[in-house]
Write the structure tokens for this entry.
Amino acid sequence: MNGIRYFDHAATTSVKEEVLKAMLPYFSVEYGNPSSIYSIGRRNRRAVEDARQKVARAINAKPQEIYFTGCGSESDNLAIKGIANSLKTKGNHIITSKIEHHAVLNTCATLEKEGFYITYLNVDENGLINLEELKNAINEKTILISIMTANNEIGTIEPIKEIGQISKEHDIYFHTDSVQAIGNMRIDVQSMNIDSLSMSAHKFYGPKGVGALYVREGVPFTKMQDGGHQEKDKRAGTENVAGIVGLGKAIEIAYQNIDEYNEKLTELREYYISQVEKRIPNIKLNGHRTNRLPGNVNISFKDVDGGELLLKLDEKGICASTGSACNSGSAEPSHVLTAIGLKPEYLEGSLRITFGEDNTKEDVDYLVDNLENAVKDCIEKSKI
């Protein structure tokens, strides 16, 4: 990429060549509307259903439990609002955590204005919820638990299977935002007792603008928009066939090679952490040391401005982030880092590095060399 070293795969990934190749016919030759009954429409319908099969297979779901959306945020909205509104005569209490993606937090905030009561669970210094706190938060009005599979900023993986079991024991539906997890870890919605799950194609080498939502058969949820009867009358609008084909191909490839992919990313992650620990003083690794996504490393540097650090790295062709790309325009400190109790002197100096399949050990060496110099420059500037 013209000298660019890209370390922000949690924000987005490139589209794989095989994925793009699979998509291209549906922009031109195979342009039919999948709701049409003539042959070109039927071929598009088969392509959509083939992708649905691939998504279902990847998470051990049934094809009829998969709904295609425009992105992970839409999937979160459709799941949480859809389940909550369908059950509001039964109860109005939802449990989530303080470190969820804003697609979940802001959805819950909207529901609060509509009369729902939300419990926001604390997390420990590693970003993990406390299962006893979760159990204690449940009451007779609780209808939904929504806890993310893995955090987008610090990479911590939550005890999803245990949460699913608790939900099942209390007859409460369980939704999980798996946008960061899909393609980076194995997920089985059956063994994990997951009732609803969100994903987004551009996080696992698929196209932007398309996502998917799993909702277990029998779980009630209402639609969010009116229109046609697409997606089993749950998501109106002509299907983005090319995007859906791309999502299906991307998730198929991801789970064919997930073990090798995870092994490579874990090696890069551990090498990067070890080099930073050796060469840069006064750092704080954010998130769980080992129970984290294979390619995610979030490190805070004492008395360093994260924005300035990013600009210095960008001058060297290094792409990284201070946290969620969806929150990059905010002047507020990260709600995730605040929730894990990070000290003020480290709060503004976080750097999230997320590795991908094209990164190499040489890339990491280049990153650490320039990071060491950039941190020194930032600290010297702050003393002036």
